[in-house]
Structures are given as C-alpha cells and as structure tokens.
Amino acid sequence: MIQFRGEAVAAAQASDVLDQPVRLTGPRTWLVLAAVAAVALVGVLWAFAGSVQMPVEARGLLTVPRGSFPIQAISGGQISDVFVRPGDAVRPGGRIAAVRDGGSTTEVTAPTRGQVFAVPIRHGQVVRRGETLAVAEYAGAPDDRLVAVLFVPVAQAAAVRGGQRVDLTMEPPAGSYGMLRGRVTDVDPTMWTKDDIAAFVGDDDLAGLAGPGGPVQRVMVELPRSATAESRLRSRTAVTGAIHQPARRPIDWILP
Predict the structure, then answer these.
(1) Which domain, by its residues, includes 111?
(2) pTM for the whole thing?
C-alpha cells in the first residue's frame, strides 16, 4: 500500500490558482510613489517658474578712485629729517623729508595734494635714489571721495554691470556701519595683477585682496552720501562685497 504525505495530498487536491490575480503592491507603496511623483512635479515647476539670485562676491577696500601715489627720493644719501607722519595732509611742494649726500642736502617734496598713510623711513636711514619715502592717497580734487573698490576675478566680472546693488561688509565693522549698500559705477575692462593692485593701494600686503587666483578687474562702488559724511568710515578699510545679479530661472543654470 502506497502512502503519501499530507502536504502532497493537499497540493494535489488544491484547485488551479494560476488564473487568480496576484497583489504586487499595497496601499502604503502607492502612497510613497504618489509622494515621490508630487515632489518631482514641484521640482519641475520650480525649475521653470522659480527664480534664484547668485551674487558675485569679491574683496576690496575703501579708498579714493585715484588710489595712492609714492613719494620717492630724487637722490641717494642719508635721511637727515622727516617732516611728515601718517595722517598728515600734504600739498604740492610740501616737504616730506631731507636727504643729505656728502655736504649737500636735498629736500623731497610732495608732487600733488594728498594724505599720507605710510612713512617707511626713519632719521639716519640710508636710502637709494628712487626709494619710497612716503605713500599718500590722492586728495583735494572733486572726485577724491570715499568709494569702495572691489577686485573681481575676470571670469565673474563679465556678469557685473553698472547700477547693480552691492552689499558691503566691513572688516572689522565701522561703528554702526557693519554693512553698507552701494551701487556699481564703473567696471574697469583692464585685467589687474597683484603688482597693479599693490601700486594702486600703495601696500604690497594689500595686494592679497586679489586672492590666490589669476587676474582680476577693478569694480568701483559708490557709497551712500550719508555714510561718507560720517567720520567713522575710514579709508583703507578692508571690505567684502556681494554684487547682486538679476534673478534667473533654475533651469537656465542647467540649459544654456
């Protein structure tokens, strides 16, 4: 007598279920799929209908549009007298220093009006012809007002236009003017190197405002009149500027 296991007998007696529907997903799965589809739809709508502003950021300083100028020795010799110190105002022909060479003494004078901010010499020092005795910012002309000068990398400067708003952050904050708002008045098409910046600001250390990258372009930013009237704003204060750009659709960043 042949005996079969109960499981085998039950399987043989079961009706054919191949024609019955099989449940592949449950209600919870459909909810997840619906949520993903909704998020994707919102993302597509935002990409085409939304807007994004990406400001151009750069470093710079407060100064006058013409920058600074060096006052140099016209002959070699020993410094016998120094007539100025940082903060002094000078006029054309104003005495800067006296240089003694043998039995004669030559007085070095300022070539134009300005305000001295650096005097890298001392009494008794020996200097060569052409060596810098003092550095001053231009002053006295109608255009010698305080502005912000930013040094923008060339690749980003192409997006900067006159009239664009700029948020300026002082380093460190100057009184109540931790941040100023100005407008771009000029974008210099010339490419500036670190040497060009050093000559403009009169300080090799400040040439680091160009950053570690390649050449930059100079962008002039006009400050509010109410701010420039305040004595708390000092020339040669380092600033960081965020130049506002027109809003763009997110899809424009993906599709040229």
Answers:
(1) 68-138
(2) 0.72
